Amino acid sequence: MKNFLYGRASSTRAAVDFLSNRKNAFFLAGGTNLLDHLKLGVEYAEVLLDIEDLPERELTDLEEGGLRLGALALNSEVAADARVKSNFPMLAEAILSGASPQLRNMATIGGNLLQRTRCSFFRDIHAPCNKRNPGSGCAALEGAHRNHAILGTSEDCFATHPSDMDVALAALDAVLVIRGVTGERRLPLESFYLLPGDTPWRETALAHGEMITAVELPPPFFVHSIYLKVRERASFEFALAAAAVALEVREGMILAARVALGGVGTVPWRAREAERLLVGAFATPEAFEVAAEAELAAALPHRDNFFKVELARRTLVRALSEVAEKWGGFE
Ligand SMILES: Cc1cc2nc3c(=O)[nH]c(=O)nc-3n(C[C@H](O)[C@H](O)[C@H](O)COP(=O)(O)OP(=O)(O)OC[C@H]3O[C@@H](n4cnc5c(N)ncnc54)[C@H](O)[C@@H]3O)c2cc1C
Protein backbone atom coordinates (compact mmCIF):
# COMPACT_ATOMS: atom_id res chain seq x y z
CA MET A 1 0.00 0.00 0.00
CA LYS A 2 1.43 3.34 -1.03
CA ASN A 3 0.20 6.29 1.02
CA PHE A 4 -1.06 9.47 -0.59
CA LEU A 5 -2.79 12.62 0.57
CA TYR A 6 -6.41 13.10 -0.45
CA GLY A 7 -8.14 16.50 -0.59
CA ARG A 8 -11.31 17.98 -2.06
CA ALA A 9 -11.08 21.12 -4.16
CA SER A 10 -13.44 23.94 -3.26
CA SER A 11 -12.73 26.24 -6.20
CA THR A 12 -11.30 25.78 -9.68
CA ARG A 13 -8.74 28.53 -9.21
CA ALA A 14 -7.51 27.13 -5.91
CA ALA A 15 -7.32 23.64 -7.40
CA VAL A 16 -5.19 24.80 -10.33
CA ASP A 17 -2.90 26.88 -8.07
CA PHE A 18 -2.50 23.97 -5.68
CA LEU A 19 -1.70 21.33 -8.26
CA SER A 20 0.61 23.50 -10.36
CA ASN A 21 3.02 23.74 -7.47
CA ARG A 22 3.17 20.06 -6.66
CA LYS A 23 4.87 17.12 -8.31
CA ASN A 24 3.18 13.72 -8.32
CA ALA A 25 -0.20 15.35 -7.76
CA PHE A 26 -3.31 14.57 -9.81
CA PHE A 27 -6.85 15.80 -10.22
CA LEU A 28 -9.23 13.01 -9.33
CA ALA A 29 -12.49 13.03 -11.31
CA GLY A 30 -14.42 9.74 -11.64
CA GLY A 31 -11.25 7.80 -10.83
CA THR A 32 -12.10 4.99 -13.27
CA ASN A 33 -8.79 5.30 -15.09
CA LEU A 34 -6.48 6.98 -12.59
CA LEU A 35 -7.16 4.61 -9.69
CA ASP A 36 -6.41 1.59 -11.90
CA HIS A 37 -3.08 3.15 -12.82
CA LEU A 38 -2.19 3.85 -9.21
CA LYS A 39 -2.95 0.25 -8.26
CA LEU A 40 -0.96 -1.09 -11.20
CA GLY A 41 1.99 1.17 -10.39
CA VAL A 42 1.75 2.87 -13.78
CA GLU A 43 1.28 6.21 -12.01
CA TYR A 44 2.58 7.29 -8.64
CA ALA A 45 0.70 9.91 -6.61
CA GLU A 46 1.62 11.79 -3.47
CA VAL A 47 -1.54 13.88 -3.65
CA LEU A 48 -4.98 13.30 -5.15
CA LEU A 49 -7.14 16.39 -5.41
CA ASP A 50 -10.77 15.42 -5.85
CA ILE A 51 -12.50 17.91 -8.17
CA GLU A 52 -15.95 16.36 -8.01
CA ASP A 53 -17.46 19.27 -6.01
CA LEU A 54 -16.44 21.94 -8.51
CA PRO A 55 -19.25 23.65 -10.45
CA GLU A 56 -17.92 22.68 -13.93
CA ARG A 57 -20.67 20.13 -14.46
CA GLU A 58 -23.36 22.04 -16.33
CA LEU A 59 -24.37 21.64 -19.96
CA THR A 60 -24.98 25.16 -21.27
CA ASP A 61 -26.43 26.40 -24.55
CA LEU A 62 -24.12 28.44 -26.75
CA GLU A 63 -25.14 30.70 -29.63
CA GLU A 64 -26.88 29.16 -32.65
CA GLY A 65 -27.17 25.66 -31.26
CA GLY A 66 -23.66 25.17 -29.92
CA LEU A 67 -23.27 23.46 -26.57
CA ARG A 68 -20.78 23.72 -23.70
CA LEU A 69 -20.16 20.54 -21.74
CA GLY A 70 -18.77 21.07 -18.24
CA ALA A 71 -15.68 18.88 -17.81
CA LEU A 72 -17.14 17.25 -14.72
CA ALA A 73 -20.40 16.26 -16.41
CA LEU A 74 -20.74 12.50 -16.25
CA ASN A 75 -20.55 10.52 -19.48
CA SER A 76 -24.04 9.16 -18.75
CA GLU A 77 -25.49 12.66 -18.21
CA VAL A 78 -24.09 13.93 -21.50
CA ALA A 79 -25.34 10.93 -23.47
CA ALA A 80 -28.84 11.34 -21.98
CA ASP A 81 -29.11 15.09 -22.58
CA ALA A 82 -31.90 15.95 -25.04
CA ARG A 83 -29.77 18.58 -26.86
CA VAL A 84 -26.92 16.11 -27.31
CA LYS A 85 -29.27 13.41 -28.56
CA SER A 86 -30.98 15.67 -31.09
CA ASN A 87 -28.12 17.98 -32.22
CA PHE A 88 -25.03 15.80 -31.75
CA PRO A 89 -26.35 12.24 -31.97
CA MET A 90 -22.96 10.77 -32.89
CA LEU A 91 -21.64 11.98 -29.53
CA ALA A 92 -24.41 10.24 -27.59
CA GLU A 93 -23.86 7.08 -29.66
CA ALA A 94 -20.10 7.16 -29.08
CA ILE A 95 -20.43 7.58 -25.32
CA LEU A 96 -23.05 4.84 -25.05
CA SER A 97 -20.83 2.46 -27.03
CA GLY A 98 -18.09 2.77 -24.41
CA ALA A 99 -17.45 0.97 -21.12
CA SER A 100 -20.54 -0.02 -19.06
CA PRO A 101 -23.47 1.87 -17.50
CA GLN A 102 -21.76 1.79 -14.10
CA LEU A 103 -18.53 3.22 -15.50
CA ARG A 104 -20.36 5.87 -17.50
CA ASN A 105 -22.06 6.94 -14.28
CA MET A 106 -18.64 7.63 -12.74
CA ALA A 107 -16.58 8.75 -15.74
CA THR A 108 -16.42 12.46 -16.56
CA ILE A 109 -15.88 14.35 -19.79
CA GLY A 110 -12.46 15.64 -18.64
CA GLY A 111 -11.36 12.21 -17.43
CA ASN A 112 -12.44 10.58 -20.67
CA LEU A 113 -10.35 13.07 -22.66
CA LEU A 114 -7.32 12.17 -20.55
CA GLN A 115 -7.75 8.41 -20.28
CA ARG A 116 -4.61 6.57 -21.27
CA THR A 117 -3.92 3.72 -23.64
CA ARG A 118 -4.95 0.15 -22.86
CA CYS A 119 -1.68 -1.22 -24.35
CA SER A 120 -0.98 -4.19 -22.08
CA PHE A 121 2.74 -3.38 -21.97
CA PHE A 122 2.04 0.17 -20.87
CA ARG A 123 -0.04 -1.28 -18.04
CA ASP A 124 2.58 -3.89 -17.09
CA ILE A 125 5.31 -2.14 -15.11
CA HIS A 126 7.71 -5.02 -15.72
CA ALA A 127 7.64 -4.56 -19.52
CA PRO A 128 9.73 -2.05 -21.50
CA CYS A 129 7.51 0.83 -22.60
CA ASN A 130 8.71 4.16 -24.00
CA LYS A 131 5.46 5.82 -22.99
CA ARG A 132 5.66 4.81 -19.31
CA ASN A 133 9.43 4.65 -18.98
CA PRO A 134 11.13 6.85 -21.62
CA GLY A 135 13.94 5.14 -23.51
CA SER A 136 13.15 1.63 -22.19
CA GLY A 137 11.94 0.32 -25.57
CA CYS A 138 8.61 -0.99 -26.84
CA ALA A 139 7.63 -4.53 -25.87
CA ALA A 140 4.67 -4.40 -28.24
CA LEU A 141 6.94 -4.54 -31.30
CA GLU A 142 7.74 -8.19 -30.62
CA GLY A 143 4.81 -8.94 -28.31
CA ALA A 144 1.03 -9.03 -28.73
CA HIS A 145 -0.08 -6.00 -30.71
CA ARG A 146 -3.25 -7.06 -32.45
CA ASN A 147 -5.17 -4.11 -30.95
CA HIS A 148 -2.50 -1.54 -31.66
CA ALA A 149 -2.68 1.52 -33.86
CA ILE A 150 -1.95 1.75 -37.59
CA LEU A 151 -2.24 5.54 -37.98
CA GLY A 152 -0.05 8.19 -36.34
CA THR A 153 2.43 5.59 -35.14
CA SER A 154 6.18 5.96 -34.59
CA GLU A 155 9.10 3.62 -34.08
CA ASP A 156 8.91 4.34 -30.36
CA CYS A 157 5.18 3.77 -29.81
CA PHE A 158 2.09 2.54 -31.60
CA ALA A 159 -0.30 2.28 -28.66
CA THR A 160 -3.92 2.94 -29.59
CA HIS A 161 -5.89 5.83 -28.18
CA PRO A 162 -8.79 3.99 -26.52
CA SER A 163 -11.62 6.52 -26.36
CA ASP A 164 -14.89 6.49 -28.25
CA MET A 165 -16.18 9.85 -27.06
CA ASP A 166 -13.06 11.70 -28.17
CA VAL A 167 -13.43 10.37 -31.72
CA ALA A 168 -16.88 11.91 -31.97
CA LEU A 169 -15.53 15.13 -30.41
CA ALA A 170 -12.76 15.19 -33.04
CA ALA A 171 -15.33 14.99 -35.83
CA LEU A 172 -17.45 17.66 -34.15
CA ASP A 173 -14.59 20.21 -34.12
CA ALA A 174 -14.73 20.39 -30.33
CA VAL A 175 -12.74 23.07 -28.53
CA LEU A 176 -11.34 22.49 -25.04
CA VAL A 177 -11.51 25.21 -22.40
CA ILE A 178 -8.42 24.95 -20.20
CA ARG A 179 -7.72 26.76 -16.96
CA GLY A 180 -4.13 27.38 -15.82
CA VAL A 181 -2.47 29.61 -13.25
CA THR A 182 -2.29 32.49 -15.71
CA GLY A 183 -5.92 32.24 -16.84
CA GLU A 184 -8.04 30.46 -19.41
CA ARG A 185 -7.18 29.30 -22.92
CA ARG A 186 -9.07 27.52 -25.67
CA LEU A 187 -7.57 24.75 -27.75
CA PRO A 188 -9.13 22.78 -30.63
CA LEU A 189 -9.23 19.09 -29.75
CA GLU A 190 -7.19 18.36 -32.85
CA SER A 191 -4.25 20.33 -31.39
CA PHE A 192 -4.73 18.88 -27.92
CA TYR A 193 -3.52 15.34 -28.66
CA LEU A 194 0.14 14.86 -29.61
CA LEU A 195 1.41 12.14 -31.91
CA PRO A 196 3.91 9.87 -30.13
CA GLY A 197 6.93 10.63 -32.34
CA ASP A 198 10.05 10.15 -30.25
CA THR A 199 8.36 11.52 -27.11
CA PRO A 200 5.44 9.12 -26.59
CA TRP A 201 5.17 10.02 -22.91
CA ARG A 202 3.92 13.48 -23.94
CA GLU A 203 0.33 12.73 -24.89
CA THR A 204 -1.44 16.07 -24.76
CA ALA A 205 -0.76 19.80 -24.85
CA LEU A 206 -1.92 20.12 -21.22
CA ALA A 207 0.71 21.48 -18.81
CA HIS A 208 0.99 20.06 -15.32
CA GLY A 209 -1.65 21.70 -13.12
CA GLU A 210 -3.87 22.84 -15.97
CA MET A 211 -7.47 21.75 -15.70
CA ILE A 212 -9.92 21.11 -18.52
CA THR A 213 -13.02 23.00 -17.42
CA ALA A 214 -15.28 22.51 -20.45
CA VAL A 215 -15.64 21.27 -24.00
CA GLU A 216 -17.40 23.52 -26.48
CA LEU A 217 -19.24 22.13 -29.47
CA PRO A 218 -19.83 24.54 -32.36
CA PRO A 219 -23.33 24.61 -33.84
CA PRO A 220 -23.92 21.47 -35.92
CA PHE A 221 -23.93 22.03 -39.70
CA PHE A 222 -25.44 18.61 -40.34
CA VAL A 223 -28.60 16.76 -39.48
CA HIS A 224 -27.39 13.22 -40.05
CA SER A 225 -24.40 11.60 -38.38
CA ILE A 226 -23.30 8.25 -36.99
CA TYR A 227 -20.78 6.65 -34.67
CA LEU A 228 -20.04 3.12 -35.79
CA LYS A 229 -17.90 0.91 -33.55
CA VAL A 230 -16.55 -2.51 -34.48
CA ARG A 231 -15.23 -4.69 -31.66
CA GLU A 232 -14.65 -8.26 -30.54
CA ARG A 233 -17.95 -8.48 -28.64
CA ALA A 234 -21.13 -6.44 -28.67
CA SER A 235 -20.66 -4.55 -25.40
CA PHE A 236 -18.09 -3.59 -22.76
CA GLU A 237 -15.23 -3.73 -25.23
CA PHE A 238 -12.85 -1.21 -26.77
CA ALA A 239 -12.98 -0.52 -30.52
CA LEU A 240 -10.96 -2.45 -33.08
CA ALA A 241 -12.09 0.20 -35.52
CA ALA A 242 -14.66 2.98 -35.30
CA ALA A 243 -15.86 5.82 -37.48
CA ALA A 244 -17.60 9.07 -36.58
CA VAL A 245 -19.20 10.56 -39.67
CA ALA A 246 -21.38 13.61 -40.37
CA LEU A 247 -22.37 14.61 -43.88
CA GLU A 248 -24.33 17.46 -45.38
CA VAL A 249 -25.83 16.26 -48.67
CA ARG A 250 -27.85 18.28 -51.23
CA GLU A 251 -29.30 16.67 -54.32
CA GLY A 252 -26.86 13.83 -53.95
CA MET A 253 -23.76 15.99 -53.62
CA ILE A 254 -21.72 16.13 -50.43
CA LEU A 255 -21.43 19.76 -49.35
CA ALA A 256 -19.64 19.17 -46.06
CA ALA A 257 -18.10 16.18 -44.31
CA ARG A 258 -16.62 15.55 -40.89
CA VAL A 259 -14.90 12.21 -40.40
CA ALA A 260 -12.83 10.75 -37.56
CA LEU A 261 -11.58 7.24 -36.87
CA GLY A 262 -11.19 5.40 -33.57
CA GLY A 263 -9.45 2.19 -32.52
CA VAL A 264 -6.80 2.61 -35.21
CA GLY A 265 -4.94 5.80 -34.28
CA THR A 266 -2.46 6.77 -31.60
CA VAL A 267 -4.77 9.77 -31.16
CA PRO A 268 -8.47 10.22 -32.04
CA TRP A 269 -7.90 10.34 -35.79
CA ARG A 270 -9.38 13.20 -37.79
CA ALA A 271 -9.67 11.83 -41.33
CA ARG A 272 -8.78 14.99 -43.25
CA GLU A 273 -7.85 13.21 -46.47
CA ALA A 274 -11.19 11.39 -46.59
CA GLU A 275 -13.02 14.66 -45.91
CA ARG A 276 -11.11 16.42 -48.69
CA LEU A 277 -12.12 13.79 -51.22
CA LEU A 278 -15.73 13.60 -50.06
CA VAL A 279 -16.58 17.30 -50.27
CA GLY A 280 -17.86 18.07 -53.77
CA ALA A 281 -18.27 14.39 -54.66
CA PHE A 282 -21.60 12.68 -55.18
CA ALA A 283 -22.61 10.38 -52.35
CA THR A 284 -21.89 7.08 -54.09
CA PRO A 285 -20.37 3.81 -52.88
CA GLU A 286 -17.44 4.45 -55.23
CA ALA A 287 -16.75 7.88 -53.71
CA PHE A 288 -16.84 6.36 -50.24
CA GLU A 289 -14.40 3.62 -51.25
CA VAL A 290 -12.01 6.19 -52.74
CA ALA A 291 -12.14 8.38 -49.62
CA ALA A 292 -11.61 5.47 -47.22
CA GLU A 293 -8.81 4.00 -49.33
CA ALA A 294 -7.02 7.36 -49.43
CA GLU A 295 -7.27 7.86 -45.68
CA LEU A 296 -5.90 4.40 -44.95
CA ALA A 297 -3.03 4.83 -47.42
CA ALA A 298 -1.06 6.35 -44.55
CA ALA A 299 -1.51 3.24 -42.38
CA LEU A 300 1.61 1.51 -41.05
CA PRO A 301 0.50 -1.88 -39.73
CA HIS A 302 2.70 -4.30 -37.80
CA ARG A 303 2.89 -8.11 -37.87
CA ASP A 304 -0.46 -8.86 -36.15
CA ASN A 305 -2.62 -5.86 -36.97
CA PHE A 306 -2.62 -5.79 -40.78
CA PHE A 307 -6.28 -6.74 -40.60
CA LYS A 308 -7.07 -3.30 -39.17
CA VAL A 309 -6.33 -1.58 -42.47
CA GLU A 310 -9.11 -3.47 -44.20
CA LEU A 311 -11.36 -3.35 -41.15
CA ALA A 312 -11.02 0.43 -40.80
CA ARG A 313 -11.61 0.90 -44.53
CA ARG A 314 -14.79 -1.16 -44.41
CA THR A 315 -15.96 0.48 -41.18
CA LEU A 316 -15.59 3.92 -42.73
CA VAL A 317 -17.33 2.94 -45.98
CA ARG A 318 -20.20 1.42 -43.99
CA ALA A 319 -20.53 4.49 -41.76
CA LEU A 320 -20.56 6.80 -44.79
CA SER A 321 -23.13 4.59 -46.50
CA GLU A 322 -25.38 4.57 -43.43
CA VAL A 323 -25.31 8.35 -43.21
CA ALA A 324 -26.01 8.58 -46.96
CA GLU A 325 -29.03 6.30 -46.42
CA LYS A 326 -30.35 8.77 -43.86
CA TRP A 327 -30.11 11.46 -46.54
CA GLY A 328 -32.28 9.34 -48.81
CA GLY A 329 -29.81 6.89 -50.32
CA PHE A 330 -27.19 7.00 -53.05
CA GLU A 331 -27.22 9.03 -56.22
C1 LIG B 1 -13.33 -1.77 -17.76
C2 LIG B 1 -13.31 -0.47 -18.53
C3 LIG B 1 -13.81 -0.42 -19.83
C4 LIG B 1 -13.80 0.77 -20.53
N1 LIG B 1 -14.29 0.80 -21.82
C5 LIG B 1 -14.24 1.96 -22.52
C6 LIG B 1 -14.70 2.02 -23.87
O1 LIG B 1 -15.16 1.03 -24.46
N2 LIG B 1 -14.61 3.22 -24.52
C7 LIG B 1 -14.10 4.34 -23.92
O2 LIG B 1 -14.05 5.39 -24.55
N3 LIG B 1 -13.65 4.30 -22.65
C8 LIG B 1 -13.71 3.14 -21.95
N4 LIG B 1 -13.24 3.11 -20.68
C9 LIG B 1 -12.54 4.26 -20.14
C10 LIG B 1 -13.42 5.23 -19.38
O3 LIG B 1 -14.22 5.92 -20.29
C11 LIG B 1 -12.47 6.16 -18.64
O4 LIG B 1 -11.90 5.41 -17.57
C12 LIG B 1 -13.16 7.39 -18.09
O5 LIG B 1 -13.74 8.14 -19.11
C13 LIG B 1 -12.18 8.25 -17.30
O6 LIG B 1 -12.91 9.30 -16.68
P1 LIG B 1 -12.75 9.58 -15.13
O7 LIG B 1 -13.58 10.79 -14.82
O8 LIG B 1 -13.03 8.37 -14.32
O9 LIG B 1 -11.21 9.96 -15.07
P2 LIG B 1 -10.14 9.78 -13.90
O10 LIG B 1 -9.73 8.36 -13.79
O11 LIG B 1 -10.59 10.48 -12.65
O12 LIG B 1 -8.95 10.67 -14.50
C14 LIG B 1 -8.22 10.26 -15.64
C15 LIG B 1 -7.08 11.25 -15.84
O13 LIG B 1 -7.59 12.52 -16.18
C16 LIG B 1 -7.15 13.53 -15.25
N5 LIG B 1 -8.29 14.46 -15.17
C17 LIG B 1 -9.58 14.12 -14.92
N6 LIG B 1 -10.37 15.20 -15.07
C18 LIG B 1 -9.56 16.23 -15.40
C19 LIG B 1 -9.79 17.61 -15.73
N7 LIG B 1 -11.01 18.14 -15.73
N8 LIG B 1 -8.73 18.37 -16.06
C20 LIG B 1 -7.47 17.86 -16.07
N9 LIG B 1 -7.19 16.57 -15.78
C21 LIG B 1 -8.23 15.78 -15.46
C22 LIG B 1 -6.82 12.78 -13.99
O14 LIG B 1 -5.87 13.47 -13.22
C23 LIG B 1 -6.25 11.50 -14.57
O15 LIG B 1 -4.92 11.68 -14.94
C24 LIG B 1 -13.28 1.94 -19.93
C25 LIG B 1 -12.79 1.90 -18.62
C26 LIG B 1 -12.80 0.70 -17.91
C27 LIG B 1 -12.25 0.70 -16.51
Structural account:
- The chain is of the alpha+beta class and 331 residues long.
- It has a domain at 224-326: 2-Layer Sandwich (Enolase-like, domain 1), CATH 3.30.390.
- The protein is 29% helix and 20% strand.
- It has twelve helices and twelve strands.
- Helix 5 (89-96) packs antiparallel against helix 8 (165-171), helix 10 runs antiparallel to helix 11 and helix 11 runs antiparallel to helix 12.
- The longest helix has 20 residues, at 307-326.
- The protein is globular.
- 47% of the residues are buried.
- Bound molecules: flavin-adenine dinucleotide (FAD).
- Residues 26-34, 71, 98-99, 103, 106-108, 110-112, 114-115, 162-165, 211-212, 238 line the site of flavin-adenine dinucleotide.
- Residues 26-34, 71, 98-99, 103, 106-108, 110-112, 114-115, 162-165, 211-212, 238 line the site of flavin-adenine dinucleotide (FAD).
